[in-house]
Structures are given as C-alpha cells and as structure tokens.
Queue: 4 jobs
Job 1
Amino acid sequence: MIIPDGYSDVPSGKTVSIVTHLEMLERPPVRAERSEASWSLSKVDAPDPGWYLALFRRIGEDWLWFSRLQLSDEELRGVLGSPLHETYVFEAQGQGEGLVELDFGVEGECDVSFFGLTPALVGCGAGRWMMNRAIEIAWSRPIRRLSLHTCTLDHPGALGFYVRSGFVPYRRQVEVADDPRATGLLPRTSAPWVPVL
Ligand SMILES: CC(C)(COP(=O)(O)OP(=O)(O)OC[C@H]1O[C@@H](n2cnc3c(N)ncnc32)[C@H](O)[C@@H]1OP(=O)(O)O)[C@@H](O)C(=O)NCCC(=O)NCCS
C-alpha cells in the first residue's frame, strides 16, 4: 500500500515510526575509539531467556523495544539458539550493559539485528568501541554485506552513529505496531517523550 501524502491518522494504542535500513558492502576503515580496561564483548551461547530479557529491557525500555518481549521462552530459545544467530554481551565493571546480535541467516550476509547500551553507558564511547568489535567480528566471516536498521523511536543519535560507522541508508519504511505500554509489555512510564495515546 502506498501511504498517501499529508497527515494520516494512527489508531490509538499504536506506535508509528520511520525505519531506515542501512548497509555496508565492504569492510570500513576502523574509527578512532576510546576504551576502558573493564570493557569486554563476549559471545553468549544459548542465552538464558530470563537473563537475556532483563538485559534487553534495561537497554530497550526507553526506546520501546518490544519484539523479543512478545516471544515465549521456547520461541526465544529457538531464535537465540540458532546456529546462524550470535549473541554478544558488552560488560563494563563485570556488569552486562550492552547487547550485539548478529544474524547470519542469509548466505554471505550479516544483519546486526540488535545493537544497544543501557542508558548509563550511552555517550561515553562504549558505543563506538562496541561497533568496532561488531564490525571486526562480522567482517572476519565470508560476508559481502553487513546491514542493520534503526527507527525514529530509537536513540536520536543512532542513525548518525551508524552512518559514521560506514553504513549507507538505502531504504525507508513506516512501521505501525501495538504500543508495548498499552499491551502491558512495558511500563506506562517508558519513553515519556512519546505519549501513550
Ligand atoms: C546507538 C548507540 C549504540 C550509539 O552509541 P553512543 O554511546 O551514543 O556513542 P559513543 O558515545 O560511543 O560514540 C559517539 C561518538 O562520540 C565519541 N566519544 C564519545 N565519548 C568520547 C570520549 N569520552 N572521548 C572521545 N570520544 C568520545 C565516539 O568516539 C564517537 O565518535 P564517532 O561516532 O565520530 O566515531 C547508543 O546511543 C545506544 O545504545 N542507544 C540506545 C539503544 C539504541 O537506540 N540503539 C540503536 C537501535 S538500532
């Protein structure tokens, strides 16, 4: 369906966002980074759903991340346990503070399906450090394309950060979804800058 020009009503109980898809077709130059001795990025094999969801919520609550919250534990184990899916935890001072998920479901490609830090770590250089590691891991595999997407509900700096990382925007979509605060997946107090209507 083509969205008509002008304003379009969004039903109450729904969120709407603009999604930008980005890709890189070759390994980019490494960007300057700062690092701290306590930072690490480690692969987590077959993550425990309870552990994973607690971290996912800490990172994504303010950005209305909901997709993983809709899955049963069994479904989540299936997604995260797939041999084509890799989950990495970013730790600072021994605490899980970030998540990188790499999806190798398409031959020759890698999609960064989730990338984020908890609010306390945003803006201190940990994002650039984590992206440099993610790019290293992804391009150490026989891929020809690395992709990801971000939406206007995500951190406002995310799109620019990805462009500076070497990703090129190539597609824009509108996403309408049940508001996870209206369905009870997230607290009503999440993302107060996006009122529940
Ligand atoms: C998107 C996200 C990962 C970006 O990370 P960030 O923490 O904002 O970015 P950083 O602070 O690491 O880096 C931003 C820039 O500032 C620089 N910087 C930050 N702190 C610095 C410091 N103390 N000294 C020098 N440089 C610094 C970084 O090197 C980087 O530079 P560059 O982009 O020009 O290479 C982060 O905002 C986030 O997790 N947001 C919440 C979840 C989210 O919205 N995820 C995106 C969903 S798709």
Job 2
Amino acid sequence: MITRNLTKLSADILDVLVIGGGAHGATIAYHVAKAGYRTALVEKNDFCGATSASSLKILHGGLRYLQHLNIKRMRHSIAARREMMQLAPYLVEPLACMMPLYGKGLRGKRVMQAALFLNDCIGWDRNRDLPAAIRLPRGHIVSEKKVRETVPDIDGEDLHGACVWYDGLAVDTERLILEYVLGSMTYGARAANYAEATAINKGDDDLYQVTIRDRLSNEIHQVTTRFVVNASGPWFEKSIQASQKKDTKQKWALALNIVSKKKIFEKYAVALEGHTQYEDRDAIIKRDKRLYFFVPWRGHTMIGTEYMESIADPDCLQVKPEMIQNMVDGVNAIYPPAQLKYEDISFFHAGLLPMHSKSEENNIQMEKNSTFFVHTHAGFSRVLSVKGVKYTTAPHIAHEIVEFLRKQLQLESGIEKLKDSHVTAGQWNSDQLQYKDILERKYGQRAVRILSYMQNEQKADIWIDEASELLKAEVSYLINEEMACKLSDIVLRRTGLGTAECPGRSVLEKLVEYMGGILSWDEARKGQEVKEVLQRYAPLVF
Ligand SMILES: Cc1cc2nc3c(=O)[nH]c(=O)nc-3n(C[C@H](O)[C@H](O)[C@H](O)COP(=O)(O)OP(=O)(O)OC[C@H]3O[C@@H](n4cnc5c(N)ncnc54)[C@H](O)[C@@H]3O)c2cc1C
C-alpha cells in the first residue's frame, strides 16, 4: 500500500531528491525511479496544486510550432503527449480543435491544408500503442456551413471554412500528475505531499543535506542525497535562494483562464482570434493576433489564455475581480454571441509562467522552451533546476534529466519495488457492479482498490452525496492510499468534484464530516477545511 511516510523517505541516502510535485517534478520522479535510481519527491502543498492545476488541459501536439518551423519541438511534444495518454488513458480524450479560416494567404484554406498535412506527417506515430478510443484522427478542412453551425453568428466576412485538428484533452490534469506520483512509488520512489524543502546544504563526499519540513506535523527531517532536482515551478529561484541568497532574475507573467457555466460551443474546442494586436517575435510565419481557445469540458467551457506581467509572490497569487471582468469583456469582444456575464464564471485557473519580455505596446512574449540547468556556483554542481513552460512536455524534460544522470551516476542495484498495486486483483460482486462505471471513469484500473473499502460500508448508506456520485468507500481509499490529507485534496485534486465549480456547501459539509471521522478532526478543524475550499472560488459569485 502507498503511504505518506517522511521518516522512511529520509531513512536512506538517495540518488535524487526531486523538489516540487507539479507536472515536472512528478514526471521526473517517475522516470528517474523507473530508470532505477533511489528517488524521493517532496511537494510543499498537495501534488499538482499549483501551476499544473491551472493549465487549459490541452495536451498539445505542437501544430502551432509549425509557425516557428520548429519540428524538433513538435516531435518532443507529440512523444510527451503520447506518453501521458498511454499512462492514464482513462483521464484523456481526443479534443477536436477548430480554427475558422478567412481570406487567402496565411489565414486561408490552402496554407492550412498544407500545415495539417505536415502536422500529420510529423506526428505519424502519434497513436502508437494507444487504445482505439483515444487515438487522434488526422486533421482536415471543414466547410463554411459547418463553421457556422458550430460557431453560430460568427463574424462572417471573408470566412471560407475552418481547419480541424486533434489534440489530447486531459480531463483531470490533477489526477494525471498523481498517476505519475503513484507510478513513481511503484518503481520504489518515496513521495510526500505537504513536505517542504526549506534548505539545501552541501555536506561531505558530494552529498547534500536537504531540510524537509512536514507541514502537517511541523516535524523536521533531514534528507541526504547525491543529486537535487529543483522542479518547484514559479518558486524555482526561491527554493535555491533560501540556500544561495541570489537575486531573482526570471520575469514572470500571470496566465489566466476562466471557466464558464455556459456551454458556448458543443463538440469543438474553437480557436478565435483576440481583439488586440499581438506579434510573436520568434514566429517565422506571423499572425497578428493571439488565439483564445474555448474548450468544452465537464459540461462547462474553459476559455484562455490571457497573459499579464506579474511580480506576485507565487505563495500569494491573487486573481482580482477586475481581471476576471476584463476577460469576460474580452470574450464578448471576440465572440459577441457568447453574451458572457461575470456571474457565469464558475472557476478560474491562474499561474505564473516564465516570461521573456514585454514591449511598450504591452505585447507579452512568453518563454518558448522548457529547460533544465545545472547550477555552477560553488558546491551546487549536483543541483539541477527546471524551468518548465508547458504541462505537455514535462515528460520530455524528465527523459533529458534521466539521460543527464546516466552520464553522472552509476546505478546501484537492489531498489525495493512495490508491486504495481493498481492492477492487483479485485472482483466486482453483483452489488458492486452498479458502481463500476462511475469508479472506473474516475480512477481507471485503480477502481478495484476501492472494493475492499466498500465492504466496510452499510449497503443503505454507501453515498456521501449521490447526486455528485461520491461514495464513502472512494474517500476512504483516497485517504488511505492516495495521500489525501485535506478536504481540498479530495475536492480539487483527487475526484474532480470541485474543479469546474464549487460543489456547494451541503456536499462539502457531508464530505468533511466523513473525512473528519477518519482523520479525527474536531469541529474547528472541519470548519477550517471547508473555509479553505470555499476560498478557492473567491472572488466568484456562487
Ligand atoms: C492558465 C494556464 C494555462 C495553461 N495551459 C496549458 C495547456 O493547455 N497545455 C500545456 O501543456 N501547458 C499549459 N500551461 C503551462 C503549464 O501548466 C505549466 O508550464 C506547468 O504546469 C508547470 O509545471 P511545473 O511542475 O514546472 O510547476 P508547478 O505545477 O507550479 O509545480 C511546482 C511545484 O513545486 C512546489 N514547491 C515549490 N517550492 C517547494 C519547496 N520548497 N518544497 C517542496 N515543494 C515546493 C509547488 O507547491 C508546486 O506544486 C498553462 C499554464 C497556465 C497558468
């Protein structure tokens, strides 16, 4: 069974300690452990609780990188997307993306037809070993009529049709990262959430002492490791600064998506041009507007992404009502028939991403490539920092880091590996079969692990909330086997219950009662847990 155990995590000398349990840290821990190194992963909050939870959930194949003629980057993206889809097919769906085409030239049919053809050629192996249900079809051009059916009342002047291509939609980005964390543990890694790396010190014999604070118990643990991988996202300079007192150099932009209760488009993620001028400085084939995607998801529409320069501390990232209102106004300017109102917004995604520069005209250029680098200052030559710009390509950086380690570090044998617990047997009996679909949709093959918890529940009292399809047994499983420690872990990162909108106070209260029973929470703690979850939806109206 997989458990959170910081004493065990710090018991032996590690080969690699990974700091940060977002897309990069989790995929790195997985691949490094799979390669046979003694690995541990520490995350100061919950896994996938920061930038990686804020993505627009598109696993890109990199069609847009054709603008930069960057085939290498496309290949990395396609391979990384396929890996994510293979690892957890139950969490990913093909996403049909539609971009209306106007006039001739770069925005016309001929150029886009050629681009789609190239995209399919470059991604010839995009579906290798993927289950049939999630294979990505070829791109194609659709008629003007089809566009008008999909995007009613679209600005029609010079409209000729649309190009359609397919990417992956990570329906539950948070569980997808958790799959990597749990997967790393089956390869022998140790992992803990609510475990913060507070200092990195160089010891003797090329070893580092990393101080870890257990944020649940306040206990301090010392971890000894040969290498440190700092994958702490927007904290990446801060995590090192604590030990190095270096100045911050990286510029950041706050990236924002809004989630609307209104279903704006049904079957397609529609890409529409923004209303302000934008020039991508690196593009060889230039467009003059940034694209905004309207992505159908969980019966809602995600819309994004907007970028604004930010000097915010990532620990205190705040989205103000005016930022949401600006986006709502922007959407209405891009697509007036949406008639979006502030009250339609049920959730938002915000995170800090590495920014390259900002022009006088407020033209924000984001950094384009994820990288990692080895620190060169004295004593830190075995500390690597990751600067990640995409969720999709995180596995690619993980592979590069494994390659780097292979050149530096001899493998020791004898890593204790757990059996891949999610595929261990479990038989659905006739009473349980009615829950099979619900559970497999959420947990894939791990659903069978929930059966033993189901046996402990009274048949007549099996639900926490039937309308939300939330079973008591699954919550017990998540606490015992997936390190769910707080109400927000279940609501926002294990079940998807509250990722599109607030599940409502009564559901939260039933859930906190049940969790409190297992985790011995008193009334004050339960109140605090509910308050913390509700804060995630401020400043929205609900
Ligand atoms: C609005 C938005 C839309 C996006 N859309 C897409 C998209 O559609 N497709 C795509 O591919 N990408 C997208 N991205 C980009 C992508 O989400 C990010 O590039 C990626 O998730 C960054 O992952 P990360 O692991 O580097 O950072 P994070 O997810 O921020 O992870 C870093 C982790 O480190 C932890 N940490 C920090 N300090 C410490 C410490 N001292 N000790 C322990 N842990 C620590 C943090 O708590 C955090 O969980 C989007 C981003 C945003 C914000």
Job 3
Amino acid sequence: MDNSLMQIIEKFPRSRQNLIPVLQAIQKEQNYLNREAVSAVAEYLGLGVAQVYGAASFYTQFRLKKTGKNIIKICKGTACHVSGADNIIDAVERTLGIRKGETTADGKFSIEEVACLGCCSLAPVLMINDRVYARLVSSEVKKILQSYS
Ligand code: FES
C-alpha cells in the first residue's frame, strides 16, 4: 500500500460521510483516482469498491483515468459557442496534436470538455488548471499553451 495515499486517507475520520472529501483530497494530490486509491478508500470507510466507484463516476469532478499535468477545460456552453469557442477548441487541438478527451504523449496536457465554466459573460472562455482565460481569441492559444511548458 502506498504510504502517501494512506496519509491522505487517514486525515479523515473513518465515517462514510467523508467519502467525497477523501476522494477530493486524493485527486488533488494524485490528479486522478486509480484503482488502488478506490480500494483503499473503500476498505478504510467500510464500503464496497463498487460503491466508491459509483460515487466517483457519478460526480463529474472526479477523474478515473490518468490525465496530463495540466488540464485544459474547454467550454461547450451556449455563450462560449456563439462567441467563437469552436475556433479556440480547434486552435488548442491543432497546437497540441490531440483531441478532446485525450492526453499528450509527454503527459503535459489533457483536454476535457465541460458544459459551462460558470463565467459566461467572459466568453469564449478556456480554463487551464485553476486559471481562466477570458474573451479569448484563437491567435492567443499557442502562446498561452507554451507558457505551461
Ligand atoms: S457557456 Fe462557457 S462559461 Fe458558460
């Protein structure tokens, strides 16, 4: 068993109510929830592995697949769409050579599509990790991505 994983889990009292906070804490550290993490949480909280997987797949905030170091969230919401998000998406995909849902071979970037980033008045919007890029134009994309290398 991975010690750093247990250190994260054991910070929480052994209560089923802590399922979501424990998963959030692990994902924050490890970027995604692997099989070992799900099993360890299930055992610690006295839940079935299927129950923990069920919760993790129900909430879109959780990732069950390994992702790149930097997560690019592209918005497919209406406000972004009408403001030219397609050009932004295209520029991101062309610059990185991957499509939505994929990770670059060097593990630097993953692209995820989300329904709305919650800042529609700033459309079109792109989010990389916790940073929002507002009123973006496609010609800025390459430079922004290069700043993450
Ligand atoms: S539609 Fe893109 S942020 Fe809401």
Job 4
Amino acid sequence: MATTSADRIAIVNAQIVTVDKTATVIDNGTIVVKHDGSIGKIGAGRIDHDATEVVDAGGAIVMPGLINAHTHLGMTLFRGLGDDMSLEAFLARLMPAEIRVLDYDAVHSGTELAALESLLGGITTSLDMYYMPDAALKVAESSRMRLQTGTTFLESDGPEPMKWPDRLAWVSKWLEQPRDNMGSTGWVAPHSTYLLGEDHLRVIAELAARYEARVHVHAAETVGEMKLVADRHGGRTPIQVLRDTGLLGRAVLAHGVHLTDDDIKLIADASASVVHCPASNFKLASGIARLIDLQEAGVNIALGTDGPASGNDIDLWIAIRLAGYMQKTMAANPEVLPARDLVRMATINGAKALQLDHVIGSLEVGKRADLIMLDPDSPSLTPNFDPHTTIATSVTRADVVNVMIDGEFVVRDRECLTIDKQQVVRKVAALGKRVLASVDGD
Ligand SMILES: [Zn+2]
C-alpha cells in the first residue's frame, strides 16, 4: 500500500534505555521508527508522529538489540558433543566431526537454528566465524539477523577442502563483493596463532590490508594455547605474534584471557577490541580475563557467547551476568564493572568492535531501529528501580517479548516471524544423529 507518511511505527509508554554516551534513560518514552528503518524521534511523553502502527510497551524496558561479538553459529550442530573436557580435547573431538558432517546445507541449518535462538533471546547482530560463510549470510538474509562474517583460515584443509592458493583466491573474491548497507568493510578470520604459522599469518595480514578488512581471531584463550604459541613462535605471546605479523591493528580478539601487562598495552596501542566470552571460559576452565586492567588501559571490551559447542547456549544475558559477577569476585570489590558498563559491553561496545557504532548499538535519532522490548509483567523484573541494574542482574531470554531489526519486527509476542521454528528444530535434530554417528568409534 502506498503511503505518504514518514513514520512506520511508534513505540509508546516505554522505559527507554538508550545506551547513549551519558546512559540516558527515558521514562514513559516514545520511539518513532521511520519507514526507512531508522529512528526518527525519541523522547519523553507523547511525541508527534504519523505512524499507523502504535505499540504500547506497557512501561517495559526498551533497549538496543544485543550484539554477540564472538560466535560460531553453525556449531549448534555439535552442541553438547564435547563437555567436561579441556579445550584441546574438545577440539580433537569436534574438528574431525566437522569434516565428516559439514556441507553447505548442514551449515545453513545449524546457523538458522542459531539465528532463531539468537533472535528469540534479543541478539540482533552477530560476529560469526565459521566455515562456508555464504550459508550463514543466506540465513542472515532470510532471518534478517545482522551478521558479520569472513572466511576462516586454518593450516589444514578443514571442512572446506581447498589448497592455500585457491583459498586466497576465494577470499579475495569474497572481499571484493559489496558487504551490506551499513558500510562494513568485510572480515578475514584466521583461527588463531596456534593453528597458523607466521608466514600464513603475514599473508592474511597483507590481504586484510589490501581490502581494508577487519580481522576476527582467537587469542590467549587457555594456558595450553599460550604454551603452544610460545613453542611455535619463539617464545612470543599470541598478542605479540599478531602485532609482529601486522594483524593486531585490525583485530577483534576473541577471549583475551591470558594477557601480560605488555599484551594489554599492545592491544590498547593498536586500538584492538577484546571480546569477553565468560560462559565458554568458565565452562572450559580457561581462566578469568583481566577486564578491569583492560578497561583501565582504555581497551574496548565487547561480549560474546562463543560457539554453541563450547558455550553451550547463545545467551548474552548470561554473559552479562557472569562477566560482572566474576570480575567483582576476583577484585574482591562489588563496585567494579557496574551495571552501566556491562550493558554497554553487550550493545554499543559490540558495535564499536564491529566499527558499526555509527549505525547500531544505541537508541538515538538517525541510527537503525534495532531494539528489544522486555516483558512489562515479568515477576523477576519487578520492581525495577534502576533498569541498568535490572538488565545486568535479572533479565533472562524469557523476558524478551518483541525484537525489531532495521525497523521491522522479527520477533513478536515471543514468536520469530522470519524462521520456521518447527522445521529448523527438526532438521538440526536429524543432523545431530549424523553427528553422533560420525564420532562413534572415535
Ligand atoms: Zn570461538
């Protein structure tokens, strides 16, 4: 139907947690979403608009969509396959199973299930690292979840059997394609400095520089990794290797658990981001990241779930809570990492890591309307004296009622509108049987 109005939807009676620079909260607020998917107006009380659809938030918290800054979405297929074991033992079980089971359709199904889980839980943007990223981008297109991804580099062939020169040609072609309408520069994803040698890392750095691509890489996750990297790279730390190979300045570093003082300085000087993944770190007993020291050094810290095979769920609310509680315990000081900082880590800091903070990550006029609306009648969110505290300590995925991306609802009344739940759950359950059969006899 043709329309002459500029406004599409007005969300009224909302407690708007904007996550702007001064952490403004607007009680009884209105957000007007324009037809182009951007936020047209935002403010207290009634605001003039000509939207045909008005959604009453019932006084509930409305906040920016969560940004999952490190994940492997397609890994839902392997959820629960290797638990109660070390990262090294887990990878030894996972990687052969991936080679046996993964193809384009399997990655598509696994990613679609992950997108469903993400959207229902309030995650609107993900930085993904997985094989056959074209399959994940297809899911992003149909589900409307924002997805940033790049090609993965291992030294071995992995599930994408491809010789190194062929892989480089593929990646170049991939990076030449236009990415999205948000100005993303594209990504390359060298898995880590323990699975890649210096020569390969340097080639990837040259490629990233040529295409101005960002680098998504695991770094300093476990003590075992530190030893492997030191042995392989002449006693250096993963961060030193990334600096020496020219990758650090473009990097989003997943984990960053075992960092020296010098590493933290290098990360800060390079303006790299660290993605803290507490659920994965604690489950694998990888260690506790030095978030307070990173914060003091001025490093941008975002949050991630890691892959659902190591995470195991894709729940960023849990990550918010674990991050805060563990740092307070470690510092023996409940004042560190206050709720406002934790909310920023799950939203605007993720956008900064992705260099998309000019378009997403907070609710401000001109930005894209990526937002979530919580349940106004949730028992566990009542009363709600300080919404930042409520978000950091009480909200769960069950409290997410509506989710909007680019001005359109993708979840309404807790139902995902863009993914057929029954179909994808059945598909992945069937694939799970194949996964199990592939590891029988290991
Ligand atoms: Zn990971």
